[in-house]
Design a protein that fits this description.
Blueprint: H1 11-46, H2 53-95, H3 104-109, H4 120-132, H5 147-172, H6 176-222
Protein name: DUF4328 domain-containing protein
Organism: Symmachiella dynata
Keywords: Membrane, Transmembrane, Transmembrane helix
Length: about 220
């Protein structure tokens, strides 16, 4: 039986993280609205309509303001998510007698390794979930991971790919048609980001619940 003396309650951290993920989703919706307005404006220009300079300037200012605020929210959310991943990995180790392949440090570190960050963090999260499964003991490695992990990672990879495509299109845009296509792809980025945020909230909620339940069960058995 594991001795979860190093277990740390993540309820507060998880709640704060989910609040920021909620903000992330909110900014995705705001971005969707703003990008849609931009698409409509550029489409009118492509169709030959004359757009007042004031309208174009207002669009640029709105987009810049939303982008700046969204970046701050994204960075704060990313920091909190990495912190939550680190603590959750430590908790998972304490629940299975330190038998995990990936250390808490690498649970975070793999996100920053080029190419490997397309699958390693997913493997880390699966291992954490398996070790945290409240219905498994010494046979925890045989546990199946919940759908929350695959949904989250699928959307994460899609977000990375479509985000890079959007950035390159934006930097290379020279004609109105180019800017229109770039703005249309930005709409897709907004939708993917929204779904990713929702998937991440589900991931955090499920793991926090599992770890707390398993910790309480092990603690009760050792009294």
């Amino acid at each position: 039986m594991a001795d979860p003396t190093g277990f740390r309650d993540t309820s507060t951290l998880s709640l704060v993280l989910k609040c920021f993920l909620g903000l992330y989703c909110a900014f995705s919706l705001v971005g969707l609205w703003s990008d849609w307005l931009e698409v409509q404006m550029i489409q009118r220009m492509v169709d030959g309509a004359i757009v007042a300079e004031g309208e174009a300037d207002a669009n640029d200012e709105r987009q810049l303001m939303i982008f700046g605020a969204a970046i701050v929210v994204y960075l704060m959310t990313a920091i909190l998510f990495l912190r939550w991943t680190y603590v959750s990995s430590r908790n998972a180790r304490s629940l299975v007698d330190d038998k995990l392949e990936y250390s808490p440090g690498w649970a975070v570190g793999w996100f920053f390794v080029p190419i490997a960050n397309f699958w390693k963090p997913y493997q880390v999260m699966i291992e954490i979930f398996k070790a945290s499964n409240p219905n498994m003991d010494d046979d925890w490695e045989e546990a199946s991971s919940p759908a929350a992990t695959s949904r989250w990672w699928t959307m994460w990879v899609i977000a990375i790919i479509i985000g890079r495509v959007s950035s390159r299109m934006s930097m290379r845009a020279k004609t109105l048609d180019d800017f229109l296509a770039s703005s249309q792809v930005s709409l897709v980025v907004d939708v993917v980001s929204l779904i990713l945020g929702i998937a991440a909230i589900s991931l955090v909620t499920t793991l926090q619940t599992w770890q707390t339940e398993k910790y309480e069960r092990i603690s009760a058995a050792t009294v």
